[in-house]
Amino acid sequence: MIYTICMMGKVDFFIDSADPQEIKKALSLGLVDGVTTNPSLMAKEGRKPSEVIREIADLVQGPISAEVLATDAKGMIEEGKKLARIHDNVTIKLPMTEEGIVALGWFSQNNIKTNLTLVFSPLQALVAAKNGASFVSPFIGRLDDIGHSGMQLIREIKTIFDNYRMETKILAASVRHPEHVREAALAGAHVATCPYDVLKKIFAHPLTDKGLKAFLSDAKKAGLSV
Predict the structure, then answer these.
(1) 93 catalytic, yes or no?
(2) Minimal CB count within 10 Å: which of 8, 24, 78, 142?
(3) Which of the residues 81, 93, 113, 201 is marked catalytic?
(4) Could you give the CA distance from residue 65 to residue 76 in angstroms, rounded to a whole number?
(5) How far apart are CA 212 and CA 71, in angstroms?
(6) Torsion over CA of 206, 203, 115 and 139, rounded to 10 degrees?
(7) For residues 68, 188, 89 and 45, what is the CA-based torsion angle, rounded to 10 degrees?
């Protein structure tokens, strides 16, 4: 049954960026189904987050995660309402805290999409899904950094969600390299969000480049042309 469910879905690629020019480049590669942003990425742009989100929404058709800065539920809700008004595709990014869960309840009741970020345990993911999160974002790279297994976390979350047919999507975050993307797909993540430099490496392989170089060299020697 789990195999059938997996076969019916697909893996989405999101770009983890707040740079519209970078997002345009990724779009040209056909690798952008959505966008994730955070305050650190927004700070690099030196503009109002609302302006950046509007520009990104004009480029991308899929979900766009916009993170709140407040740490209390009331503040998160007020910020989230403003962000949600920017565009229908905006997904409110909330921290996986008690206050974040309280805010999540309000957004779920009002049919506003959410992404629970900084998830580091299966129980955190379960609480978020039970309260109606659209996405949960396990930070696999940060877990690997401290000697834990980010992929094991994704596998455990996937098992729990499949057990109870939870509709919340697993968004693999803190992706550091293409191997993370491969492992996340095998583990059953619905989405991998990657920096632009990682997206570029997904379809690259040195043997592809070597083979193409050899083909072109042989064609030149033979005097072939189109």
Answers:
(1) yes
(2) 8
(3) 93
(4) 14
(5) 52
(6) -20
(7) 50
Query: Which of 168, 11, 35 has the alpha carbon at shortest distance from 104?
Result: 168
Tell me the pLDDT of the chain (226 aa) as tens digits: 333 333 346 789 999 999 999 999 999 998 899 999 999 999 999 999 999 999 999 999 999 999 999 999 999 999 999 999 999 999 999 999 999 999 999 999 999 999 999 999 999 999 999 999 999 999 999 999 999 999 999 999 999 999 999 999 999 999 999 999 999 999 999 999 999 999 999 988 889 889 988 988 888 888 887 7
Which pair of structure tokens corresponds to residue 179? 């191997």
Is the whole model's pTM more than 0.85, yes or no? yes
SS (H, E, C) the chain: CHHHHHHHCCCEEEEECCCHHHHHHHHHCCCCCEEECCHHHHHHHCCCHHHHHHHHHHHCCCCEEEECCCCCHHHHHHHHHHHHCCCCCEEEEEECCHHHHHHHHHHHHCCCCEEEEEECCHHHHHHHHHCCCCEEEEEHHHHHHCCCCHHHHHHHHHHHHHHCCCCCEEEEECCCCHHHHHHHHHHCCCEEEECHHHHHHHCCCHHHHHHHHHHHHHHHHCCCCC
Q: Which residue, chain included where needed, has tokens 């193409």?
A: 212
Please give the structure tokens belonging to residue 35: 């966008």
User: Which residue's entry shows tokens 């992404």?
Assistant: 115
